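Action item from last week, closing it out:
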Amino acid sequence: MKVPAAVAKALRDFGTDTVFGLMGDANMRFLVDFVGAGGRFVSAVDEGGAVSMADGYSRVGNRVGVASVTHGPGVANVVTALTEAVRARSALVVVTGDTASRPNHLQRFDLRGVADLTGAEYRRVLRAEDVSRDVAEVLHRVSVTRRPVLLDVPVDLHGEEVEDTSPRRNGGPLRQAFGPDEDALDRALGVVASARRPVVLAGRGAALSGAREDLLELAELIGAPVATTLLGKDLFRGEPFDLGVAGTLGSRVSTETILAADCVIAFGAGLNDYTTAEGSLLADKAVVRVDVDPHRWECTAQVDVLVVGDARTTARAMVEQLRAVGHRPGGFRSERLAAELAAYDPREEFVDRSGADTLDPRTALIRLDELLPADRVVVTDTGRFVYAPWRYLHVPEPTAFTHTLNFASIGLGIATAIGAAAAAPDRLTVAVVGDGGGMMGMVELVTAVRSGLPLVVVVCNDGAYGMEYRALERAGADPTPSLLSWPDFPAVARAYGADGVTVRTMAELEAAVVRLGAAPQVPFVIEIRTDPTVDIVD
C-alpha cells in the first residue's frame, strides 16, 4: 500500500471511525483511503471548524479526535481552534503534510512553528517505512498525555509503497487510572481527618475517572458537602448536600458554605481563579489536591498537600483507611443546610429584566432547562451570555458539557457542538452562542446539515458585543460602536438547509420548543432577542 493508505489503515486499526477535515493536496488521498476503509469523513466549511469539531468529538466522546487539513493556508487557518484544544487538554490529532520539497511552492509554511505557537506537539514522519508505526504511536501518546499533536506526513512520501507495520491498539474511552503516592496520601489523610468543616470539590478529572460514587461515600464519611468546578458540572446533581458549581458561578448557599469550611479536598479540579473566586474561597483553609497532572497551568491555588493519583483510586483509598481507624463525621452536613439546598430556586437570585420585546437570558435559559429533553449535551461559545447557560442549563453528567473559553475566542461554539453531536448521536446537542460568535460560526451549519447531525443552536442576540458594551459603559465611554446589526439568524439557517425561529417573549420561546420537537431532523436555531443594557453578571 502507499503511504496515505497506511495512514488511513493505522487510524482505523486504532479504532478511529470519524475524521473531520477539509480536503486539499496534502490529505486528499489519505481521506479517500480512510473512507474506503470504512471510516466517516465529515467535510467542514473551514479548517478551523474541522479542528473544533474534532475537539468537541474528543471532549464529549472521551476519545481521540482526529482532524485533517492541507498544508500552508490549511494549517494557518487552524491556529485559534488548535490553541483552544491545547488549553482544554483535548486528545486531538491534526493530520497534515508538508509541501513538496521545492522552494517556490506557493503553500510552503512552517508547520513546526504553528505547533509551537499553539502549544501543540509537532511530529513529522521521516521515513515512509515508519509511517504506520509513527501514526499508531502518536494516537497512543495523545490518548495518554491529552496534548494535541500536529502530525506531518510530508507529501514527498505519499507515492512510496510501504508494508503495514501498525500495531492494533484499543482506541476506546480514555483512562488515566493509577494509585496515589502513599506518603502524600498519608499527609492528606492527616489533614482530612482533622477537619471539622470539610468540602469535597470535584472537577472534570473526577468525572472522567468514574469517581462519583467513591467521592459521595468519602463525603458522607467525613461529613462534607460536595461541590464541582464548571467542567464537573452536575456530577452530584440530585444529592441532598450538592452545592453545585463553586466559585464565581456559585449560588449564595454554595458560596456561604464554602466560605465557612475549614478544608477543601479537590479531586481532578484545576482550582483556577474562577473556581476559587481568585483565591478568596480557599483563604484560611487547608487545601488537599488530588490530580493525575501536578503541573496544570491554570491551577493558581496554594495547596497544602498534593496527591498525584487518579481521583477514583485515591478516593477509594481514603475511604478504606478512614474506615479502618473508625473516623466519624463532624456536623457540617446539617439539616438546615439540606433544607436550604432543597429550597433553592435560581429565580430568586436575580430580578427578571425581560422587556416588552426582549427576554432576560437568565429567565430564558431556566425555562429552556425545563423544556428541552433532559438527556442532552450542552456546548457554549464565549461571551457575556455564558453566565446564563453555565448556571441554569443542566446536563446528565459532566462529560455532556463543554465550553470554548480556554482561549477566550468567540466563534468556536457551533463547530465544537457539531463534533459533540457526532460523538453523542443519541442525545440532543444544544449549542448556546452569542450573536457575534454565532454569526462567525453559523456557516458550519452547512456541515451539520449535509452530515445529518441535527442540533439546537440557541443564539442570545443582544445586537452587540456584550462584554465590550458593558466594559465601555463602565469606563464612561460611548458603547454605541459595540452595537451590531445582523441578518435574521433563522433566515440564515434556512438558507443553509436548517430551520429556526426568533423569540422575544416567553410564550414564543415555549412555542419554539414545541415546534422543535424531541428529535429535530435538521439543525434548529432559536434566536432569543435580549437587551444589551441588562447586566446578567450581577
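Closing note: The chain has a mean pLDDT of 94.
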